[in-house]
Amino acid sequence: MKYKKISQAFVLIAGITMVSYGAIRGEAATVLAKAIKLCLECVGIG
């Protein structure tokens, strides 16, 4: 049980670190732009 909690904490910290690094690099804007294009293509507008 102790090993499970330690591994969960490690994965949580790693995920927060990766998301923060991507946000600092400006990747959020790229992902949002691609998501908008994909949605417009699905609707048939883009």
Automatic annotation (TrEMBL):
Which InterPro entries does this one have? CD1871A-like (IPR047708)
Lineage top rank: taxon: Bacteria
Q: What is this protein called?
A: Thioredoxin
Species of origin reads Eubacterium ramulus ATCC 29099
